[in-house]
Amino acid sequence: MKKLILIHLATISLSSFQATADEQNETHRIGAQLSAGAASYYNSSNNGDEIAQLYLYYNYQFDKTWALEFGLNGASSGDEACKGIDTKYNCQSNDMFFNRNIDKVEFSNYVIAAKGQFKITENNSLYGKVGGQSYNYSMFEKGRKTADISGFGLFLESGWQYDWNNGLAMNVALQYIDMDELYTSSLGVGISYRF
User: Fold this and answer.
1) SS3 for 151?
2) Looking at CB atoms within 10 Å, which of 28, 99, 121, 149 has the fewest?
3) Where do the Outer membrane protein beta-barrel domain residues begin and end (predicted)?
4) How many CB atoms lie within 10 A of CB 13?
């Protein structure tokens, strides 16, 4: 009996959220965000190595303030960071990430997060995201994979968003991803579309 009551209460709650979102006619949002920033590795004396990432996401808007986000992030450090040119004018990558014999780092994340936003004006808002992510990262030495690590970690983002009346929006964001021993902080710009 208790289970049946809980199911009915959950259905009524979700229906009220759905009705509020439907009234605004903007229950869905898809977007992409490009970021660049720094990666740090546990016990490394040479943290702050550069990474670039692409984050694709979908939001389901419950009301004017809250949304649930599902995202996919992919990132890589540059393995073409040249510190010298040989006699044939080819790039020599002498970069060592995290003060180790690592010349490339790649990672991907599957994200689930809650997004809260606060309107400043009709079109401007500040937002924050907090959630979890399933990650997998790999490290390479001279093109050979030397580490392949998976797990679960924290995902945080805060930023500013501008929404046009036609459904398009742009944002600027600070993002933090914790992958146990590897963590990143980055600055990104993105575009999205609500419908």
Assistant:
1) strand
2) 121
3) 11-195
4) 11
